[in-house]
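Quick one - inputs below.
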Amino acid sequence: MQEFSVLANTLANTSGAIARGYYRKNFDVQSKDDKSPVTIADREIEQRLREMIEKQRPEDGIIGEEFGTKDSQNGLTWVLDPIDGTKSFVIGRPTFGTLIALWEGDTPLLGIINQPITNERWVGIKDKRTRFNDRLVKTRNCPSLSRACASSTTPAMFDGLPPVYENFEKDAKMMVWGADCYAYGLLASGHLDIVVEAALSPYDFAALIPVVEGAGGKICDWDGKPLTLKSDGRVIALGDPALWDEASKLLK
Amino acid sequence: MQEFSVLANTLANTSGAIARGYYRKNFDVQSKDDKSPVTIADREIEQRLREMIEKQRPEDGIIGEEFGTKDSQNGLTWVLDPIDGTKSFVIGRPTFGTLIALWEGDTPLLGIINQPITNERWVGIKDKRTRFNDRLVKTRNCPSLSRACASSTTPAMFDGLPPVYENFEKDAKMMVWGADCYAYGLLASGHLDIVVEAALSPYDFAALIPVVEGAGGKICDWDGKPLTLKSDGRVIALGDPALWDEASKLLK
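Output:
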């Protein structure tokens, strides 16, 4: 685990340096087939991280947002989102992050959320307490939905679904928008109680699981099942697992 | 104007120190009559800034989010939002800001957007170029809506209105949520093209006008009229004023 952790932190350092180099500079923003934006920074980060992994651990698999899947020969797979929150990156807002995860089969071993502008890093490791910039963190107690701060990235995630975000707008204490992966870090640090999202890909949530669980939170799909790399992309994270009974009613 | 500018920057420094003291600490979050949240930091900042203004300029009026209106005896009025984006402040996200404006009658003379965690400050002064951390900034060209990055704080702003944000989601290049006053700063710095919002109060937009206009942008109500302290709270800011023809069609 020590080797994995050192490598993952080195990948985070490298991605941060590349992101800082492009942040608020002029660069082209292209639209992918799913209309989501991509920049040279996304591509350069993922390419560089893949090279580093392949050099040090040639048998590990890699799943990346921009360059697809390399099959694993040993059961271990790195899951990379070079820039989660590309829209925030594009407008120069420091709430995007690089997500780096290592899974063994269906089990997440390690996850990093790295924000390179404000220099904030959450590191989650299976069966260990989550660290934020090297300090231990934990989620906060919030036994009641009416006292919960909830968050999501964009209402467009919920297109074609039941009125889930409207339910949270109505019943939670407040709803905050646009926080990308940063929201899950804030939840792990005890500043936020719920993140509810849909239409996520495995590289969007793979790294979040060890961060949230290692801080005492619960993260699962909307049916309450553990997330796997085959999950349907509907994700809810709760700082206080006791919120599940109330929150799950709003997901139907 | 020099005296006003020095005082406004001193107010921004003072508000920043108070905000940093509470940021990510434990504090109570209360709900106001309009269900918007307020914290001890909002109240302490506004109280302190009002004291400073009253001491140095006793005849100036003050309009503040938390403590109401003090009438002006000389035509000059300070307009204060101690924490714009209280929800972001509450969840520990550094996109909130303190807004400080000085108006003479219906004319905005000066506006500051201050982000005290990332140490970012936009200063707009009537008939002068806007400065970001002391460097001159300008908005960017974006002649076509299909190439524009648009932003808004929350879909709840548009409750009961025509499907305006849905129009921007569909026709703009991308739509980013949850940026509070920070979005107008990013627009002034040329990273974002459109901010469209509703249900704003004068203290939410009073400081934004000199910042946006001094960077070459346009900011007005949804009918294209200049904002006044009596405007109805529907606000649009355009980095490139040439976007008005296309954007205004989506506001109907």
